[in-house]
Each structure stands twice: as structure tokens, then as C-alpha cells.
Prior knowledge:
Number of helices: 2
Distance between the termini: 40 Å
Order of helices and strands: HEEEEEEEEEEH
Radius of gyration: 16 Å
Helix content: 10-25%
Largest sheet: 8 strands, antiparallel, barrel
Mean pLDDT: 84
Number of domains: 1
Strand order of the largest sheet: 1-2-3-4-5-8-9-10
Amino acid sequence: MKAKLLTICLFLFSSQVFASKNMSGINLFCEEHNLLVTYNFLDNKRYQTTNYFLVYFDIGIREGTYGFLNNPRYLYLKADKKLEIYNKLNKNDNEKNWKKKVVEVPKLDYYLDTEDLNITFSPDKNSQIKSTCKLFDGTADELRESSLKKYLKNFDNDN
């Protein structure tokens, strides 16, 4: 019963958050195959995504713009073309020692299903899910710290 009540409360909270059309300060933690992804909504039109690649010591950061479609259930996420990749040459490297490169990649535009909190390839209920997300109750810096801990823990489990 408590789990059902919590699910209903979370759904109502997320519906109210996404209905405002201004996502500023909203943070999402998402999981995909071999990838942890965070979305930080910076203001009323810009977001930043961070990809923690679980196969290599690479972290990719990209910004983009977002907007609502005619169907308010979906948020359009338009990614910038440049992706900054930070490479940890080994897992004990301090962030200051990470190697940085900027690469041009195809635009990978996605959609956020604001009801189910999934990142999808197209704005409809039957679209393939790219990643499953959760609202993160904390600041962007706290999300970054938490995600980095999960990311590094993944490598500890492999050894």
C-alpha cells in the first residue's frame, strides 16, 4: 500500500513539475545499456546531459535546447553537435588530469516522455525507449557527485 501511495505521489509531483513548461532546476538520472546519463535543465530552454560510459573511462558532456510539442506529454531535446569527452586514463586519476577532447557527432535529438520519465526516439507511446529515468531530488552538483560515485563503483566491481 505504501509503495502504491508513493508511486501516485511521485506521478502527481512529476506531472506538476513538467506542466510548468519551465524545467529550470530539474535533474534526471537515467540508465541505459553500458551507460549512465544525467539531464540537468539549466533554464527555460537549455539543458546539459552527461554520459558516463561504463565500458571505458570516458565521460561525455553536451548541451542542447528543449521545448514542448503540441502533445504536452513529450519534451523535445535538441542536442548540440559538439560533445566534450573527458577520458580518465586510469580510475585513480584526479579530475584535473582527465584528458579532454571535443568531437563533432551527429545530432542525437530525443524526446522526454514526461509521464513515464523515459527518453525515447520519437514522440509517441510506442516509441523505443532509449533510457529510463528518475527525478533526482537534489542539485545538479549533487547529481554529478552521486553519478560519478556510481560510475566509479562500476569499475571497482569489474576488478
